[in-house]
Amino acid sequence: MEYIRAFIVGGLICVVGQIILDTTRLTTGHILVMFVTSGVILTAVGLYEPLMKFGGAGASVPITGFGYSLCKGVMEGVDKKGFIGAFTGGTEATAGGIAASIIFGYIMSIIFTPKTKS
Length: 118
Description:
This is Stage V sporulation protein AE. Keywords: Membrane, Transmembrane, Transmembrane helix. InterPro entries: Spore_V_AE, SpoVA. There is one protein chain. This protein is about 80% helix and about 0% strand. It is mostly helical and about 120 residues long. The protein has helices spanning about 1-25, 30-45, 50-55, 55-60, 65-80, 85-110. α5 (about 65-80) runs antiparallel to α6. The longest helix is centred in the C-terminal third of the chain and has 27 residues, at about 85-110. The chain has one domain (about 1-110). It is globular.
């Protein structure tokens, strides 16, 4: 049942992104920023935590989950370090994922030759 919930939650997040992409003139970059920001806002108002508990990886893997991680890191950083934690908490909480994406992106750029679309 856990896999089904993750599939449904992750799929719904992707469906929302696809609908926005198809019905507006927003670029994928705009949608990416909007999803990260919405993950932060939903976490700040307490709505993303229940979604994480229900959807598991379906809520944590999409880019909204990155916004959730940033927001949780900032909140924990402020609790531990005060005002300076607002600047360091998000980076500390997401450092592993950011480092992994840079490393794997670099490895893929070495292995594969990118081609422009015609």
